[in-house]
Amino acid sequence: MNFTETFSPIVKLSTVKYLIVVAVKHGWSLFQLDVNNASLHGDLHEEVYMKLPQGSSGDIIILDIYVDDLIFTGNNLVEISALKKFLDNEFKIKDLGLLHYFLGIEFSTSPDGLKADSGGCLPILKEHLSRFLQAPRLPHMTVAFHMLRYLKDTIDVGLFYSNSPDCTLTAYSNSDWAACPDTRKSASEFCVFLGDCLVAWKSKKQPETEYKALSKVVAELT
Length: 222
What we know:
The chain has helices at 13-26, 77-91, 122-129, 138-153, 209-221; strands at residues 30-35, 61-66, 69-74, 93-98, 101-102, 105-110, 113-117, 159-162, 169-175, 187-194, 197-205. The protein is of the alpha+beta class and 222 residues long. The chain has three domains: 13-110; 119-157; 166-221, no CATH class. The two termini are 34 Å apart. Pfam families: RVT_2 (PF07727).
């Protein structure tokens, strides 16, 4: 197999969050599907060009695809049902109903919006501790126990996407100079809000942090 010529449709996680926030703020239902045996479908050898048709009815359906997992939303349930039927005829899909679990994130609805729970800060904490695997010391074990206590006390904490109608797009970026006490490397960070909902963020150690922090947040917005 030539791995340079293989491709699977993978949506960015931040795009998934944008879609979810837009759906919540417009009061649209979110659905999820799974494509059966997606890897067995034939290769596409032709060049395909797509042109958006002129809208006349005002119906909207937005679809996010991550390999064989799909979530979608829209303002017309009849058209959404028709889309499900069409996809099932073409690919044989499993209808998983309303959105509840996608890409390791668990979702729960409430009258005020939707909560997303992905394990909190666990990936960040694990990444930080993994830097010292070559020569672990007692302070690292102390931090690990502290991390476990923190996770136990914040097990119900997650991101909340409110149904407030505000859709103002706001971005922040920041950088420091050699502030990491362990590596003396600089770091750049950014975060993006859609209304009052956090939809994208990143932090990375690197040189020339001020310019890279600005370029990263501009790339996220565009």
